[in-house]
Amino acid sequence: METRRLSKPRSEGFQLSLRIRHPSMDPADISRALKLNAEHSFRAGDRRRSSRGIETVSTYGDSYWLGVLKPMGALVDIAFPGDRWSQVAQRQLHETTRSLTWSLCLSTSRFMHAHAELFRRIRSEGGQVSLLVTIYNGEGSSFTLAPEASQLFGELGIAVEFELAGD
Q: Would residue 130 count as lying in a domain?
C-alpha cells in the first residue's frame, strides 16, 4: 500500500505521524479514542477511489488511519504573565520539543502511554501500529532513541519507521 506523504512542518525539521492498520476498526473510532483527527483514513469494505476521485468496484481489505502527532500540544503552559523566569522556562520547553530526541521521548511518555490499551487491543485483533519519523533535508543529523522510549515502543508493539525526505 502506498503511503500518502504529509505536508512538511513549518518550524521543525521532522514530523511524527502515527499509522494504524486494522482488519475492521472504524477510523472514526480511532480518531475519537486518540482525540486526534486523521490526515488520511479509510475503512475496511469501503470502495476504493481512482486517482481522479471516482469510486471503483474494488474495496479496501483493511482499515487505515494516519495522523500527525504534535508533541508540543501535550505540554502545559508554564508561563505566568509578568513573570520573566516562567516565560524563559516556557520558551526553553518549546525549544526542547523542536529536538527530535526530545519529541520522541515526549511522544512515548505522554501520548503512547496514555493510549497503551488501545494499541494493545489493535495488535491483539490483528492490527499494526507504527510511529513514522520523517526527517526533512538532513535536519536531524543525529538523534537518540532513549532506552525508555524504545522499551515502551517494544512493550506496545509499535514499530518505529524512519524516512529521510528531501524538499
A: yes
64 strand-pairing partners = 21, 42
The whole-angstrom distance between residue 48's C-alpha and the CA centroid of its chain comes to 24
pTM here is 0.76
Domain contains 7: no
pLDDT digits (tens, 9 = 90+) for 81-107: 666 665 555 555 555 555 677 777 776
97 falls within a domain: yes
Number of structural domains (the chain) is 1
Domain boundaries, position 122: 14-165
The answer as to whether 3 is a domain residue is: no
CB burial of 41-70 (b: ≥16 within 10 Å; e: otherwise) equals: bbbbeeeeeeeeeeeeeeeeebbbbbbbbb
